[in-house]
Amino acid sequence: MNGPDTKNPDPDDPETLDRNWNELLQELRVTQTGVQILTGFLLTVPFSDRFADLDRLQRTSYLVVMAGAVLTTGLVVAPVAFHRILFRQRERRWLVEAGNRCARVGLMLLGLTSSGALFLVFDVVAGTTAGLVALAVSLVFFVVCWLVVPVVSGVSPTSTAGTRR
Q: For this UniProt entry, which segments traverse the membrane (predicted)?
């Protein structure tokens, strides 16, 4: 057979690039909503009455979590900005690759930021030890669910067609 290889599509094929771009945007839409809600909520925290009661560790934790949320927002929105700047310039391959990198780093930061937020809540409500336990458990959860499960699934992360190793 001399037909196209349907199991391993050409990554430069316009249809493959369009499909990959659309899938990436759909994934980012889901992520963006959660990240923007978290960021918006965190922006209101310093204006609450109890913020003055936070100790130095809690305030520092809040600032780290807030910075993480803003950076995560920037990363998951970046592919949209890239697309606007490069619109109709035939840079779909670059958009897919750069968008994928932003999504991966954004998800990593989202896991760290969510874990940091959980630490802060547990620290305020139940103490630093509880906060550290919550932080550790949530980090393990994100690493297992978002990294270990796909890696041990036997699917090659570099495969465009999801072929087994």
A: 62-82, 103-126, 132-155
pLDDT digits (tens, 9 = 90+) for 129-148: 999 999 999 999 999 999 99
Radius of gyration over every alpha carbon of the chain, rounded to an integer in angstroms: 20
Kindly state the greatest CA–CA separation across the chain: 72
Classify residue 110: in a domain, yes or no.
yes
Query: Whole-model pTM?
Result: 0.83
User: Is 129 part of any domain?
Assistant: yes
Q: Is residue 59 assigned to a domain?
A: yes
Q: How many domains does the chain have?
A: 1
Inside any domain, residue 2: no
What pLDDT, in 10s, does the model give residues 13-51?
A: 788 888 988 899 899 999 999 999 999 999 999 999 999
